[in-house]
């Protein structure tokens, strides 16, 4: 999220002289304490919950144990949803990158005095309810609607419809997390010195060559941050799958939610949740190896 | 055709911008619909019933009020805690900076379903009753990081010379903070608070895990999606959208005017200096 908020021109002066005093610790204590108690410790309880076993002769009651077998059992029961989440979120992330790049590029290089306003417009859709915006895609992609009819006339839809198929879920994911792709891309593109692009043109580079050799490599930090910020929420999302897909398009988030809240199978749900987090942590770890922690927040 | 080829980038960028607003237009248009069935997804006939009778379905307004209360409380607490962290990060040296940065970043990189379920695991194990307090606790937890990032960006963008100048003029640290630092950071803190409010108000996943029987506005919509969302929900969401947009645009406009005024005053003093034939002075 770092690159999202620290958009233009920040981070260049990391105030050189930071005071060394006890006040710093007092300022950190309440907020970091809150995060430790309600964010970090819950992972410990989540892990402990994932190892619990049912109390014999009851349902919905679990007791502390060290049953590591919950993990392979949960994974084999829901491997389909895991793989589907990877495919859906991965496709949505690539689509979002392709859609976001031209707009981010336009705002960065052609935005001029309208930059601020254009950025507000990029964020503005998030002011309307996430659930309702997702639900609106039921209207846009409806079976009798213009988009579905048009694509059916070309007969390119495998199931003759979009709604209640994986396509609708991917469409919803792509749309919903697009601002998270646009903002970091913009932040990276905005930092590029336009003279570099001019120079490339002056040296008779074809615009496509300029893009490939100058602009794209310099925008890579934004591409990495944007794909991360799009992929992670899309991977864990279950709203799009629930509202736009059929029961055959459920993702790992749906499995966690159903097991926790409906089935009350806490160990399975906790194991799924923990595996999802482990996967995300691996991705974040590789990101930090590249970028360090100071760029994160 | 040549026009499109010449302006291909502009055309594509505008199309993407339009795409971002298509679902919102749908939500807005359907708020004036008189749906044929319980499911308000297809246009039937024009009606302003939902707008003239916003609380026609009491549960809608009740849940709306619950969400406003939760967002207010959690935003106030999270803004205070988050701003303190941002100050510490920018202005103080301390041990464990790496792990501090990481603990602030991780909540933003964790899928909501993981945060919601792990917090629920904690409350279940402690046998802590679910309800408004647990939702507020959760909302404070996941908004703090966003507030830290927003306030930190503002602090880093501040000219450190201004505080230095105040201290050179023998202002106490307290006076420096009161009269220099705080007024300069306040717009950043206000912006961060707005962001926090928006995040909390619209959160569904984390709330759903920790709400028990409490019904927030998004939880109401989720439940209604199965049996048909009342038109009033569309009207309220449209209202929230335009109200937030207005607030942000006004803030942008005020900031723009301030920048203009500042530039003007710099030019002014420049002119005055020249009038005094002191044009050898270095310009700022």
Give a verbal description of the structure.
The complex is a heterodimer of chains A (297) and B (284). Chain A contains 13 helices and 3 strands, in the order αβαββααααααααααα. Chain A has 297 residues and is mainly α. Chain A has one domain: MetI-like (MetI-like fold, Orthogonal Bundle). Chain B is an all-alpha fold. Chain B has a domain at 59-229: MetI-like (MetI-like fold, Orthogonal Bundle). Helix content of chain B is 77%, strand content 1%. Chain B is built from 12 helices and 1 strand. Chain B has helices at residues 2-6, 8-30, 49-52, 58-91, 97-109, 112-125, 132-156, 160-168, 173-202, 205-210, 217-227, 231-275; one strand at 92-93. In chain B, helix 4 (58-91) packs across helix 7, helix 5 packs across helix 7 and helix 7 packs across helix 9. The two termini of chain B are 48 Å apart. In chain B, 41% of the residues are buried.
Largest interface: A-B, 100 and 96 residues
Rough shape of chain A?
A: globular
- Quaternary state reads heterodimer
Low-confidence stretches of chain B: 273-284
Could you tell me the number of beta strands of chain B? Answer: 1
From the 3D coordinates, which CATH architecture of chain A would you assign? Orthogonal Bundle
Strand content of chain A: under 5%
CATH class of one domain in chain B: Mainly Alpha
Biggest sheet, spatial arrangement of strands of chain A = 2-3
Total number of helical segments of chain B? 12
Q: What is the name of the CATH topology of one domain in chain B? A: MetI-like fold
Shape of chain B: globular
Biggest sheet descriptor of chain A: 2 strands, antiparallel
CATH superfamily of chain A: MetI-like
Distance between the termini of chain B: 48 Å
- Using only C-alpha atoms, the radius of gyration of chain A works out to 23 Å
Summed up, the helix count of chain A is: 13
> Radius of gyration of chain B, rounded?
25 Å
Structural class of chain B, by secondary structure, is mainly alpha
């Amino acid at each position: 999220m770092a690159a999202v908020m620290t958009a233009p021109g920040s981070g260049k002066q990391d105030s050189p002289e930071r005071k060394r005093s006890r006040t710093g610790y007092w300022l950190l204590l309440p907020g970091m304490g809150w995060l430790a108690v309600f964010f970090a410790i819950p992972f410990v309880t989540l892990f402990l919950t994932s190892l619990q076993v049912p109390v014999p002769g009851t349902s919905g009651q679990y007791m502390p144990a060290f049953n590591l077998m919950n993990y392979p059992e949960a994974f084999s029961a829901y491997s389909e949803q895991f793989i589907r989440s990877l495919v859906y979120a991965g496709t949505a992330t690539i689509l979002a990158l392709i859609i976001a790049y031209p707009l981010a590029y336009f705002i960065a290089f052609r935005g001029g005095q309208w930059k601020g306003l254009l950025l507000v417009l990029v964020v503005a859709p998030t002011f309307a309810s996430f659930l309702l915006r997702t639900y609106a895609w039921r209207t846009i992609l409806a079976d009798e609607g213009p988009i579905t009819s048009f694509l059916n006339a070309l007969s390119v839809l495998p199931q003759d419809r979009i709604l209640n198929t994986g396509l609708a879920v991917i469409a919803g994911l792509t749309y919903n997390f697009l601002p998270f792709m646009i903002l970091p891309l913009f932040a990276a593109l905005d930092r590029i010195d336009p003279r570099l692009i001019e120079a490339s043109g002056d040296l008779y580079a074809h615009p496509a060559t300029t893009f490939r050799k100058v602009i794209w490599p310099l925008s890579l930090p934004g591409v990495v941050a944007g794909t991360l910020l799009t992929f992670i929420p899309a991977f864990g999302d279950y709203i799009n799958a629930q509202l736009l897909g059929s029961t055959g398009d459920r993702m790992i988030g749906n499995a966690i939610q159903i097991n926790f809240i409906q089935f009350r199978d806490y160990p399975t749900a906790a194991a799924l949740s923990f595996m999802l987090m482990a996967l995300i942590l691996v991705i974040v770890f590789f990101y930090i190896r590249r970028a360090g922690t100071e760029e994160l927040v | 055709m040549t026009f499109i080829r010449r302006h291909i980038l502009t055309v594509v960028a505008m199309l993407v911008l339009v795409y971002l607003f298509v679902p919102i237009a749908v939500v807005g248009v359907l708020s004036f619909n008189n749906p044929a069935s319980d499911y308000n997804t297809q246009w039937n006939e024009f009606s302003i019933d939902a707008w003239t009778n916003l609380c026609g379905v009491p549960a809608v307004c009740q849940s709306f009020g619950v969400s406003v209360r939760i967002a207010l409380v959690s935003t106030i607490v999270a803004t205070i805690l988050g701003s303190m962290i941002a100050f510490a990060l920018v202005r103080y040296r301390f041990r464990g900076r790496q792990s501090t940065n990481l603990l602030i970043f991780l909540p933003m990189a964790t899928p909501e379903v993981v945060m919601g379920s792990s917090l629920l695991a904690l409350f279940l194990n402690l046998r802590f009753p679910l309800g408004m307090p647990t939702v507020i606790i959760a909302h404070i937890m996941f908004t703090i990081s966003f507030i830290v990032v927003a306030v930190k960006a503002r602090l880093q963008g501040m000219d450190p010379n201004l505080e230095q100048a105040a201290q050179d003029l023998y202002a106490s640290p307290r006076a420096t903070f009161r009269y220099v630092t705080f007024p300069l950071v306040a717009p950043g803190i206000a912006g961060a608070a707005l962001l926090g409010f928006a995040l909390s108000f619209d959160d569904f996943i984390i709330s759903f895990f920790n709400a028990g029987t409490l019904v927030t506005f998004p939880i109401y919509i989720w439940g209604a999606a199965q049996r048909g969302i009342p038109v009033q929900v569309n009207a309220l969401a449209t209202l929230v959208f335009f109200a937030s947009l207005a607030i942000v645009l006004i803030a942008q406009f005020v900031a723009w005017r301030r920048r203009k005024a500042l530039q003007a005053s710099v030019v002014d003093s420049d002119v005055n200096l020249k009038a005094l034939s002191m044009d050898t002075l270095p310009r700022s």
